[in-house]
Fold:
Amino acid sequence: MQLDTLIVNGIIVTVNPDFEIIGNGWVGIKDGQMVAVQPHRPGYLLPGALETVDAKGGIVMPGLVNTHTHLPMTLFRGLADDLPLMTWLNDHIFPAEATFIQPESVYAGTLLACTELLLSGTTTCCDGYFYEHFSAQAVLLSGLRAVLGQGVIDFPAPGVPDPSENTSVARNFIQRWQNVDPLIQPSIFCHAPYTCSEKTLREAKEIARSTGSLYQIHVAETRSEYELIKERHHMSPIAYLESLNILDSRTLLVHAIWLDDADIDIVARSGAAISHAPESAMKLGSGIARIQDYIQAEIPVGLGTDGCASNNNQDMFQEMDITAKLHKVSTLNPQAMKSRTVIEMATIAGARAIGMDRTIGSLEPGKQADIIIIDTQAPHLTPLYHPESHIVYAAKGSDVRDVMISGKWRVKNRGLVSLNLDEILDQARAEGKRIQQWRTHLEPT
Ligand SMILES: [Zn+2]
Structure:
């Protein structure tokens, strides 16, 4: 069989069910899928291929799955920091969104986000925002694989001035983007149980169920949210969602920090998944999710960066590093979160959380060829004893040399293959200038 691409001379971290690591192996790709993931055997004649790529001893692994993004918020990176969630949202982010979020800015901010994700090894993201139609256009151009959720909230939002239309706008978005491209899955994203009414939450779930889409929601993010929902509904945020019949295997609970034992049990029984975004939760002082307990309860847990206004980057390598260390220090146990577990969260478990583990998340024949190559020819990656250790504790997004999605190279030798980075940066700078002028006007010095 003639292959399209053959990747040779790599340390292959498969993230298959046995977490098999092949010290020197090759990957064969045909029609966008992996057809072979094999150790190198001296004397064995490799199949012919249109293209052979030498990993030069670098790490070959599944593309990273970022289970929580707000792509256009790259434009708000560094706009307002060091604030509690509610002050940050109400005094800074919501006003900035009301003033600046338009189709053009969503498109420009999303393209900027896509370049950052691709260059740092993310091949799939799970997103939610407003004007998601324009995000989808930018994502489609970038070649990223994505679940894209139209945001739903019960007050006037960018593109949805009348909140009574929030769920119908989301339904239209899903219908518009279903079956457009295999890389794009439309979804619905309810902002939170404290910004959406019971009616909105239920309607959104009905739309998700009837279209087979992923239902995303920020929930139990802060203690104040937990207390607010308890006061309003006399139950925890998780129990509240359960009471509305929202939790099932197509529900992604984002943050899910303030869960008690009963909540963990509810989530585990429902089949719902959790997106863990520790850097954002640390920056906003939201709390520390009991991730080890969630994993023990067999809840699918993926990693996410959250939007750039609360992180402030989309580097999944940094997220992995922080995840491993946060759970060690919070439990005073260096064995609490091992590098393999964290890599799984950033790949196969993340894929499971968004319903894609049959097609992506590991390097196995029959799966989509979403592959990254990490250049290990660097002082901070030398020598190399345990690849999984380097991935979590030493590598950075900037060490990613090549990125393939569905068999197509999107990054080669640290450069974007099909996007013009200079143009995208210029456009983002222009948007940034407009935002800066507004800020200067608001805060005269
Ligand atoms: Zn978020």
Q: What stands out?
A: The longest helix spans residues 421-442.
